[in-house]
Structure formats: C-alpha cells, structure tokens
Amino acid sequence: MIPFVNAVWAIYRKDLAVWQHNPGILIATIISPLLFFLLLTVEVGAVGLSPVALVTLDTGASGIQMQQIFHQADVFRITDASTEQAQVLLNHLDVAAVITIPADFTARFQAHESSPIVLALNNLNLDFVNDIRRAVPDAITQFYTAQGSASPIKVTMQETDLRHRDVGLLAFMVLPIIVMMLTINGMLTNGTMAASEWETNRIKETLLAPVARSAIIVGKVLAGFTTTFLLGVVVLSFGDLLGWTQPQGIHIVISLLMIALIALFSTGLGVALGAALQRVQPVLIASALLAFGLFMLAGGISVLAFEPAWIQTIAAFSPLTYGVHALEQAVFYSSSDQFVRDVLVMSLSSLVALWLGVLMLQRRIVS
User: Fold this and answer.
1) Rounded CA gap, 128 and 50, in Å?
2) pTM more than 0.90
3) Rounded to an integer, what distance in angstroms lies between the CA atom of residue 66 and that of residue 40?
4) Is residue 355 helix, strand or coil?
5) Tens digits of per-residue pLDDT, 250-293?
6) Where in the chain is the domain with CATH 3.40.1710.10?
7) Residue 112 gets which letter from DSSP?
8) Which CATH superfamily is domain 49-150 in?
9) At a CB cut-off of 8 Å and minimum separation 6, what does 107 contact?
10) Theoretical Cys-Cys bridge with 354: which of 66, 183, 240, 268, CB 3.0 to 4.6 Å?
C-alpha cells in the first residue's frame, strides 16, 4: 500500500508541477468564460433597462407623482427632456421611446376625465418595443393603486413571490459561467496534459517506472481534480466578494460539494479525451466545443424552464443541468429543492466520466 501511495503522490506532484509551469493552460481556461461574461455584461447593460425620454409637461401634484412612478419603475433608463429634446433623442436613436405626461394631466385626473399618457415608439427592435409596451401600462396601474380610495379606478395589487429574493440578470449568469469554467478547465487541462504526454512520448518514461498502472491513473485524476476544484472555489469566493454568489450556512457545503462533483465529471471527460485523441490540437477543439455545448444545454444564456420543450428534453440528459440547478438553489435561494436528485445525477455522471477516463487511459497504456 505504501509504494502505491508514494507512486500516486509522485504522479500527482508531477502533474501539478506541469500545470503550474504551463500558464497557457490557465489562460486558455479563464479567457473564454471571461470574454463570454464580458459580452453578457454588455448585453445586460444594453437590454436590462429600456432607454426612454420622459417629457413631463404637467407640474401639478398628479403629474409629478406620475413622473416619480416612471423613475421608480426599475424598468426604464430615463432621460428627462423637453418635447424638442425628446424628439431629437428619438430621431438619433438615443432612446427607444418618448413618454409624455400631458400638461392637463392633473386637472383631468381630478375631474375624473380621460387623460392619456402619450407614448411614441421606435419599433426598430421588437424586444425593446414589447418591454416598453408592457411597462408603461404597468406604471399607470401603479399610479392608480397609489391613490387608494381616492382613485376613480379601483386597483388592488397583491404580489406573492415564489422566491425570497430577486436575482439580477448579471448575477444569475455567474453560476453557469463558473460551471463553464470548471468544465473547460477539467477537460482542457487534463485532456491536453494527457495528450501531450503521448504526443511527445513522455508517457514512456512513466510507464517504465516500477509502479502500478492504477497508481498512474489515480495520480493524474487527482491532480486534475485538485486544480479544477480550487479554480471553482476561487471564482465562487470572488463572486461572494462582489455580492453575486453568497451561499449561507449549510448551503456553503452544498455549493462546494456540487463544485467538487462538476470538477470530477469534467476531469474524467478530460482524461478520456486526452487518452483517446492523443493530440493536443484535437483535444483543445473537442474540449471547447463539448464544454460550450454542455454549458448551453444547462441554461447558460437563458432560463431553461422557459425554453422550448424539445430543448428541455435534450437538457435533461446533460449532467451539468442538474449541477447548475443545485448551485442556483443553494447560492441564490438557500434552498435544497430537488437536492437529492441533483446530487445523484451528478455523482453517477462523475463516476461514469471517471470510468471512461480510466478505461481510455488503461487501453492506451496497455497498447
């Protein structure tokens, strides 16, 4: 047993040393998710709030209240402007719409007369247009709700949230990005290192050593798991500092467990890819495509529950779908919803991936 442990330790230290002295692997691991995250940041900034010009012609109490409700709606990116300024902004595509509160809004409201809010839309982009079309009536409804018993239109609003907190779109995207980074690192690091050893014939030196072949396999898998798991912990901690990923209590342990299972899963796939392809270039391409495909199926750029049924059906066979779900429940909502299912799927998937990695490694070693 002692020689076996010593051999595992030697292989483990050697692979870690190779990883440390090859910064290109770490850069390749981080740069793709980082660029994707930066792209999402720009996208969220562009579509998160609809840019509109607000023209308030009424200085009465109701007009000012309506103006404040539009500002507090947390739906618009508002620029207060005069009628002329708003038209220039709309013509230059600086805003997607102009909302005008008419000069007689207060007087008409107090007289219980119709006083329409004027909305001028540029229908260049249907996404912006539909958001604004829904948001303006909602703001008007809030105005009438705020009047209470004095409102000529009786409106009562009651909201019941399914979750105890609201998660911003950018923060919601952080966990899939972390999972993508873990998957790329596990497959790319282990795959390229394993393929490089066969490509340069360095594997022969390891095979000539008087150690059990199983010790070689265990050492390599442990080294890949360590680097991938530590990367996940570092990124999760960084997200905690920024206020994006802040699991509490036992859910910290759950989050670390899921990161460990995802690390095992990607490590096994990486070892299998490296042993099967035996060339660095094909491994780089295959690992990137596979990681991105799994990331997309796990709801990487959207909420999976709102996707078409056929995508949800395919995603049900992706292990990362369950890993992302468990992380979201633990990190964002302090919930254990379907935790047992997620752990079982990720555990079995990790074992299958490791088995594939060990199988391919053993076959190549024997051959």
Assistant:
1) 6
2) no
3) 33
4) helix
5) 999 999 999 999 998 988 888 888 878 878 888 888 887 888 88
6) 49-150
7) T
8) abc type-2 transporter like domain (3.40.1710.10)
9) 60
10) 268
